[in-house]
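seq as requested:
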Amino acid sequence: MDHFYRSILMIVVALGSARPTHAVANEQGNWKPHHVQQFTAQGDQTRKLPAKFQIVTELWKRSVAVPYIVYMPEKDRLALLVSCDYPQPPHRPFLLFSDDHGATWTEPKLANPNIASLGKGLAYLGDGRLMFTAGTRGHFSDDYGQTWPRSSDKPGFPSGVRAAEWDPPFVDRNRQTGKVTRIISTAYRNNNQAFMRSSTDMGKTWGSNIDVPQWHGYNEIALVRATNGDIVAACRTEMAEKFSGQIDHYEGLGVSISKDNGQSWSDVEMLYEYGRHHPSMVVLPNGAILMTHVVRRGYPNDAEGFQQFGVEAVVSHDHGASWDMARRYILHKWSANRKDRRAWWASSQGTSTLLLPDGHLLTAFGTGYRSPGEAGKAFAPRDVGLIQWRVDSRL
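struct tokens:
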């Protein structure tokens, strides 16, 4: 076991009987019984795996969007970044914290009143340091997310060219010491070109934007390092021409791999042509890579004719080169409650998955399941759900 991960395990064990007092430790908490479905190798049957489920924001009377979740081992604490309140006033980033692995959560806390933009890409850098992006600036905390007093610019974009970030930055660490050696941030421009940029000073300054030729026609890019040293990129596609005029639910998902530490990349291998994207990846203890993603198109309508949406997961056993599509997981699925052009309000948006010390996976996702059924209603409330689960132990 690497020195860094052995140290983390010792910290977690030591803190097991000394939880902070700002949140109540409660094994059951707000969890409800749930099950995850896994397709069999034949692809036409599913088995049920026990899980736990909650809608964290179910009692909130507001719109809550795009969750990002991280684990802070020194305190055995979770931090959850969400963005609230839109379209008016603008999105604002809030944080919630859990000291019982997601069973209960603190009240939402505004990160910084001066930030009036969607908060994206929460990442943990170690020693109480976190970062996320809002607009074109990175925002930083040195006290486990309690305050966010610092920010810095990221590289500018050509005048008149719209660009955006979405996924958490890739935090590259020395495998022996755990020290952060590099942070890679991905973004995309409105000419359908995804690019990357890196920082070697904990996000204070950033190098030049580097267009990746193989990422032309792709936008949101999530990164993870496989156990063989490769960097795996999960890439959301731009919409295929045959879907022109449709909403962005018709964008798809593919994978690109770098075998030289990010210097060059393979062509994107497509997993889904449309309807599935917003990926999040985590490396499992056995070296497999698990990817969660949303499902916005691809399910049949339910028995009453309503569209269905969901969150799924798929596993790679060869460092991202191939994916076990036949035995994918359905983590959660739900229906819209209207059939007009705004049925998409109920859709999923965003997944964020991490591995807990006890081996459970924790997947946060966005959902519009409370979309109002009646026409003419104001924009629907949105929510953040959470699933605690495990992959099939027989794999």
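Confidence is low (pLDDT under 50) at residues 1-26.
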